[in-house]
What we know:
Elements: E1 11-12, E2 18-22, E3 25-29, E4 33-37, E5 42-48, E6 51-56, E7 66-70, H1 74-88, E8 103-107, H2 112-140, H3 144-180, E9 182-188, E10 194-198, E11 204-208, E12 215-220, H4 234-266
Parallel strand pairs: 8-11
Antiparallel strand pairs: 1-2, 2-3, 3-4, 4-8, 5-6, 6-7, 9-10, 9-12, 10-11
Helix pairs in contact: 2-3, 3-4
Amino acid sequence: MPIPIASLPVLVGRDGIALSAENEGLVLDLPTEQIVFTADGLARLRAEGGTVLIELRAKAGATPRVHRIDGVDPDGAVLFADTINDLLANRTDRDDVDGARFAAIRSLAPRWRHRFARRVLRGSLGYLLALIVLAVVAGSLGHWDVVIVEIPVGGISWLALGFGAYGVGHGRRERWLQRHGVAVTATRATSPGAYVYPDGTGDYRIFVHGMAGAAITVFHPPEDPADVLVPSPPFTRLVNTVGGGFLLACGAAGTVALALLTVTSFGTPGGL
């Protein structure tokens, strides 16, 4: 009697790499990536002691791609491989298939946009902390003029610098990728909002984006095909860049004005 996929054990190997069977196919969890293999792309699984080899289908004359997980339980590996191979044996479609198209890689590492947003957030929190310290020191020394001006000017400058830096940084990143990055066509996957694109190495990567359409053009750095970016419409990018620059200028002007007021007030006994 066939063993249900849901009852198959999760194979946990070296470095925390795990292989599991789910309704959509096999899922291989790596430290920085997750690969989902659908049945259409699988050729067979091989259990060799504590190693499981996931062999993908390949077109005639091509070398099949193989994914490897080491350090798993040997008995569990045999059960897992035999069960999956029994299911694959019932397949009736043609053999000339590129299995890499059915092995979607999802990056778990934060993309540039998320890393940059964290840097902006840390800078904003540091600026806010400096404003709080300034208010406490000025109030304790009786310079209430600084405190009264700092609340509106410092608060608006804080917001302007944060949003401005993000807008300008994101716009510059888009322009750089469009000039120096790699442009690829991503096609809509079966999952809602998901798109798949080739990464130039023979693998296919998946990401989620809310844009509608059967295909969209995306960009990624030559050295990191996982860090994909969907460009904004030209008008939106222009507004973000110009608006971000304006906010940066306003935030910088407010910061300079607040610094001059602080220096002048602290240099005058009793404040201004």
